[in-house]
Amino acid sequence: MHLRGRTPPRDAVHHPLFARFYARFSVAADARGGIAAYREELLAGLSGRVVEIGAGNGLNFAHYPGAVSEVVALEPERSLRQLAVRAALRAEVPVDVVPGAAEAIPMKNEGFDAAVASLVLCTVRDLPRALSEIRRVLRPGGELRFFEHGLARGRVPAAVQRAADRTVWPLLFGGCHTARDPLAAIEAAGFEVGAYRRLRIPETGPQMPSSPCVLGVARKPFTEE
User: Domain Methyltransferase type: where (predicted)?
Assistant: First the structure.
């Protein structure tokens, strides 16, 4: 397995307190909150070269199917990237963890068969630019697999999300913006949205601004308009 140990002089994202919280919370959510099953569904059937955007602490790595020849996993936050490197060593497919932000993916055009965005599009600073970069590095017909927080469909829950995004939520949760509409943004970026389903996490009990989620697939068109 080839792992690059490059670290830029200054990371594009620096959330050390959130990184420590997320590293603990995400592992618990996978084990007890059913998130691991959603990761399995998200990645099922992938093959070839895959770029994962905002890999966090690498919890997706264990779920990549054997037909995947390589995963290039971008993570801009240093503490999470170090955890992702450890997870990559345990993965059953080759995983290369690299520093980098979604808005400037350090990869050549059309170099990947698929891209994965998992609970990350809510945090990128420039969502249209990030999606444009994902589209650039995908081959024509390549898939974008997404599992993301999404704008609630009810008026009151959506208003709560927007209020949270205007106050302390992004500061507490690593730049997360719960009121973004990932489906609309993916379509606006030129992808063809395929099958998807809406989720609530957790499925029962108290709901948070981040509870509404969407899991699905989109494709880069074979021909550019």
Answer: 51-145
